Amino acid sequence: MTFLSSLLLSAALSGGGAPTPPASLTARAWVLTEIAPGGRVRRVSGERPTLTVTPPNVTSKSGSLTVSGSTGCNTYRGPATLSGQRLKLSALATTRRGCAPAAARLENDFLTLLRGASHYRLSGQTLTVYAGGLSRLVFTAAPAAATGGSMPTPPKPPATATPPAATPLTAAQLAGEWQLTRLREGGKAVNVPADALLAFTASGANTLRLSGSAGCNRLMGEATLGGANLTFGPLAGTRMFCEDMAAEQALTRMLRGTGQLAVSGNLLTWRGTGGELELTRRAAVTVAADLGGTYRLLSVSGTPADASRAVRLTFNAGQLGGFDGCNSFGSEYRLDKAGQLTADSLISTLRACPEQTDQPSLTALLGKAPMLRLSGQTLTLEAGGEQWVFEQE
Question: Three-state SS for 251?
Fold first, then answer.
């Protein structure tokens, strides 16, 4: 039976309305194996883009379905319309994390062809999406076991057997800074930089803000707790290119979807379909007395500070103050157990400094409730993708 015949039969059985894609198309994910922009064919290896087709709602009359997946670096999602073998995609939404040059080129070609899709053909385990002329994307069906396809149904336990309920975790238990000590992807260990870490800040009883780095770019996002599971939302990040990005790329691939979480003392383990993370809690500064003194700015996001601006930050008995290179400022502050610094009712002088309008603003950073870390005489503030490093005078 051809794909078109299957499609017409599905529509007939459902009593009309929106055409229903066959189960052979929607029951699994599709992995890109070949891409041909303008007919120039090249094989795809390494971290390959994927495509998943989700059927339209049974009440839909427009034939609208959803396509989603990975570009090999970012994730994407958007509506599409099916009519026979014609395929029309609407606007695709994507995350915007930084990619290595080769991955960025593949992502651009992949999304360009996907957005220009005109029709497709399904033949056994192969799906071909055509984008006009000789341009096309060729996918191979992923193994059903890895994508939630057809699996044998396990026998039901006896009615009297009630599994013990897992103790639900709370966002407060995860809040803090965690050193990434072990990363395994696809059963293989990945070398982890010594400064790789993730920081969680509770934004609700079961929701968290995430920031961190695996040695190159700053990563930011959100996560949600559900019992003993932790689900990561789309990650954003800076877009720098570094010589060694293997750990960062592995980490961003893994932090997608839901995984099982376990916390034992200062050890946190997260296991998802892609692999496993192991993190160790880092000690946080918890009392104002630990911060007492004045700190001079050394760098902002890796760029050495302008010595002529003399930017300084002072902590004293629950008060913070300083000089941002133009104006003086001050306020009371609070520091929670996770190391998040909150400046209450920050007051600043209003001197105009037009020559510094393009410079990063310390008062703006303090207004974002940055994460604070103190190691010896080095104090670090991080928020909004910026990292400010100070040295105690």
Answer: helix
Q: How many whole angstroms from its chain centre is CA 13? A: 41
Task: Kindly report the pTM of this predicted structure.
Answer: 0.37
Residue position matching structure tokens 């260990």:
189
What is the identity of the amino acid at 302?
Answer: G
Rounded CA separation 168/215 (Å): 32
Residue with tokens 């994460």: 371
Measure the CA–CA gap between 178 and 134, rounded to whole angstroms: 49
Rounded to 5 degrees, φ, ψ at 253 are: -70, -40
Query: pLDDT of the chain along its 393 residues, tens only?
Result: 443 334 333 333 333 444 566 666 776 788 999 999 888 889 988 788 998 888 765 434 445 688 888 888 888 888 888 787 888 887 788 877 777 778 888 988 999 899 888 888 888 888 899 998 788 999 988 765 344 333 334 444 444 444 344 456 788 778 877 888 888 888 888 888 877 878 888 777 788 888 888 778 878 888 888 878 888 888 787 777 787 888 888 888 888 778 888 888 788 898 887 788 888 887 654 444 467 889 999 888 878 888 777 899 999 888 899 998 888 999 988 888 778 888 877 888 888 776 665 678 898 899 888 888 887 778 888 887 788 888 888
Residue 358 dihedral angles phi and psi, to the nearest 5° = -95, 10
d(CA 274, CA 120): 29
Q: What is the CA radius of gyration of the chain?
A: 26
CB 338 within 8 A of CB 377: no
